[in-house]
Protein: Histidinol-phosphatase
Amino acid sequence: MTETSSAVIDAAALLAAELADAAGEVVRRYFRQSVEIIDKDDASPVTIADREAEAAMRRLIAARFPDHGVFGEEHGVERPDAPWVWVLDPIDGTKSFISGVPLFGTLIALLHEGRPVLGVLDQPISRERWLGGAGRPTTFNGQAVRTRACSELARATIFSTTPAMFDAVDRPRFDAVADAAKLVRYGADCYAYGLVASGFVDAVIEGSLKPYDYCAHVPIIEGAGGIVTDWQGRAPGLASDGRIIAAGDRALHARLIERLNH
Structure:
């Protein structure tokens, strides 16, 4: 990484904290309130909170880095071919949000030439924040965190948002992993990735994800000592097929790759 790129990431990390603060103010105002639920074309729900939070973040990016691209869940794509592209998910886990469950989060990523180099996972209700950047240790509320060692699937705790996210081909593959794991849990949305970075969970395995669902997790987990790839072991970016493995231990990651592709 060049000195110039590193300087951009440093400046972007400061902005990312402002973006998370701005989104959090919006989200807290609407959480557990009566808000209109709108079904998008893919049948997933969206609320005014999602849209206002993303709009607030976009305004800050435009003011600070007007030449950067933006890929947002709610308001689309601007300058996708720019060298630096922000990827935003104002509320990852909208179903949890509208159900009053505080396990959703705001996801903020910055990509350089297609590679995630900065990530923020912010839980605005509990005010917990993970920050990861290329070449930097991941922090949780300002303190460095590390993944835990767990090389054996039989000792591993595995998370996924829901088994319903796997299609007819991938569901048996995930079930083969789940059957061999020590513990499998569902329903934490993006929060589970933060738990991997902090060493409480060993892996997250998911499918049917979009770039704004996973890009932020890459630098967060890598900076804590883990690894994030697709199910083939490839580094994920905007062109990924949306099947993601995030593991705290590289030996465990290799075993997961092998079992999922057996």
Notes: Helices lie at 3-30, 48-64, 94-98, 170-180, 191-197, 211-214, 217-223, 250-260. The first strand starts at residue 37 and ends at 39.
